[in-house]
Design brief:
It is a single chain. By secondary structure, the chain is mainly alpha-helical. Helix 2 runs antiparallel to helix 3. Strands 1-2-3 form a 3-stranded parallel beta sheet, with helices on one face. The longest helix has 47 residues. It has 3 helices and 3 strands.
């Protein structure tokens, strides 16, 4: 997949507050295009227009690749944290369901409903949120290893 990026020099690439990061507008543009045209291809090629200096080209390459590698690392850590969080919630939900068997009337129903709501939230998170996150992580991996062509 080819992503065209037209720039007016390196100032369009860098964040105006931190020169070691890419601008939010550029990041949103690149990721937005990749999400809208979700692909099964193995790689992404960035076609960059407007950067002519050799040093600027290397800075652009390094910043883009480092930025998306950092995003991949963040998503990997987030997935590990979410797995631990889901396991704790699952144990809590099962405990609430089992606890509901020991009570009568109102408390029994309250613990039963609370336990199933917690378990449903885990299932919802896995089905909907984790799939979206894995898709974005896959895009970030491809962008971290993307081929960058300057025209």
């Amino acid at each position: 997949m080819n992503v065209k990026v037209e720039l007016n020099g390196l100032c369009d690439v860098l964040n105006r507050f931190n020169k070691d990061m890419i601008s939010q507008d550029l990041d949103d543009y690149i990721v937005g295009l990749c999400e809208n045209k979700f692909f099964r291809k193995k790689s992404i090629t960035l076609e960059v227009f407007g950067i002519n200096d050799f040093n600027d080209k290397e800075i652009f390459r390094n910043i883009i690749h480092d930025h998306y590698r950092n995003r991949v690392n963040f998503y990997s850590k987030l997935d590990k944290f979410d797995d631990v969080y889901r396991i704790c919630l699952l144990i809590l939900g099962i405990f609430a369901i089992l606890l509901s068997e020991n009570f009568v009337s109102f408390l029994s129903e309250l613990f039963l409903i609370a336990g199933w709501v917690v378990i449903w939230e885990i299932i919802y998170d896995v089905i909907f949120n984790e799939i979206k996150r894995k898709r974005r992580e896959n895009i970030f991996k491809k962008l971290a290893n993307s081929n960058i062509i300057f025209k």
